[in-house]
Amino acid sequence: MIQEIIEIIAKQLKVDVDSITPDTDIIDDLGADSLDIVELLMTIEDKYGISVPDDEVTNLRTIALMGEYIETHNN
To answer: Phi and psi (nearest 5°) for 10?
Structure first.
């Protein structure tokens, strides 16, 4: 799942897959802005059938944290 998230992020942010690790911060390391984050979360929500409440978004800054959230909330 982590690799899938990395591929989604690389495609949406137009960065090299090899530059992303589970500890990569999508804002600090990849320069994602608020619109990028909304688009990423929409893609991830659709792919994994989850919904991320607005108050959780700030907690999902790394790929590893996104993966943990998806595993916990994916029925």
So the answer is: -60, -45
User: In this structure, what token pair is assigned to residue 21?
Assistant: 């690790």
Per the rule left: phi > 0, alpha: psi between -120 and 50, beta: everything else, 74 is beta
Query: Could you report the per-residue pLDDT of 12-71, keeping only the tens digit for each?
Result: 999 999 999 999 999 999 999 999 999 999 999 999 999 999 899 888 999 999 999 999
pTM assigned to the model: 0.87
Q: 9-18: long-range contacts at Cβ-Cβ below 8 A with a sequence spacing of 24 or more?
A: 9/40, 9/63, 12/36, 12/39, 12/40, 12/43, 13/40
- CB distance 52 to 69 below 8 Å: yes
- Asked whether the beta carbons of 30 and 15 are under 8 A apart, the reply is yes
